Amino acid sequence: MVTQELTDLVEKGVMLPLMEEFYTIQGEGYHKGTAAYFIRIGGCDVGCHWCDVKESWDAETHPPTAIEKIVDNAAKYSNTIVITGGEPLTWDMGPLTTGLKEKNLNTHIETSGAYPLTGTWDWICLSPKKNKLPEPEIYDVANELKVIVYNKHDFVFAEEQAAKVNENCILYLQPEWSVRDKMIPLIVDYVMQNPKWIVSLQTHKYLNIP
Ligand code: SF4
C-alpha cells in the first residue's frame, strides 16, 4: 500500500500506529491492581518534558496496524482494554472502540484530553497537561482526573482542573516518577489537608512490570 493510502486510513482511525501492546496489571488510578490489556498508540505532540514514553511521540516510527488485528489480539487476553499512548485522541478512536465493543470488551482510555474526544468509553482517565490543555467537553465525562505532580505549582494546576470536572469525577494526585522521593511527602501532606484528593502511585513501576 502506498504511503498516502496508509496515511488516509490512519487519519480515519481504520489503521492506527501501534507502538506496543501487553497484558499486565493496571498500576495507576481507580483500577490499580487489576489485570488489563494495554494498547499503546503512537503519536503525541503535547511535549511534556518529563514524559517517560518519548519514543511514542513520532507516529511515523510505529507501524500502521489494522484495527481488526488489534481487536482480535486484545480479545484473547482480557475483558478490559486500556488504550494509552502517546496521545490516543490524536486519532479517531471510533473504529477501534466499535470493534472492541462488538466483542463486549470494556474500553478504558488514558488521555491528556488535548484533542476532541472520539470513541465509546467505559472509563475515561483524564490526565491534563499544562502545555496543551484539554478540550472542554471531556471534563463532563471524565471518570477520574489524574494530575501528575512534578513541582509545587502542579498543586495549583490540579485545583484549576478539579474545578472543571464533573461532580462524580475521582481526583488523583500522582508523583512524577523521577521526582517521587521529593514530591511524595508534599502530596501526602496536601491530601491530608485536602481530602477530596487521593494519592495515586505508579505501582507497576514498584512491581517492576510494564
Ligand atoms: S501527553 Fe503523555 S505521551 Fe504526551 S508528552 Fe505528555 S506524558 Fe508523554
List keywords for this structure.
about 210 residues; alpha/beta; TIM Barrel; binds iron/sulfur cluster
Quick recap of the structure?
The protein is α/β, with parallel strands linked by helices. The chain has a domain at 4-148: Aldolase class I (TIM Barrel), CATH 3.20.20.
Layout: helices, strands, pairs:
Elements (H helix, E strand, L loop, with lengths): L2 H9 L3 E11 L9 E7 L22 E3 H9 L4 E5 L9 H9 L3 E6 L11 E4 L17 E6 L3 H10 L7 E6 L4 H14 L3 E3 L3 H4 L4
Parallel strand pairs: 2-4, 4-5, 5-6, 6-7, 7-8, 8-9
Antiparallel strand pairs: 1-2, 1-3
Bound molecules: iron/sulfur cluster.
Iron/sulfur cluster binds next to loops.
Largest sheet: 9 strands, mixed
What fold name stands as the CATH topology of the domain at 4-148? TIM Barrel
CATH class of the domain at 4-148: Alpha Beta
Attached small molecules: iron/sulfur cluster
Ranges where pLDDT stays below 50 over 5 or more residues in a row are none
What is the arithmetic mean of pLDDT? 97
Overall strand count: 9
Order of helices and strands: HEEEHEHEEEHEHEH
Structural class by helix and strand composition? alpha/beta
Shape: globular
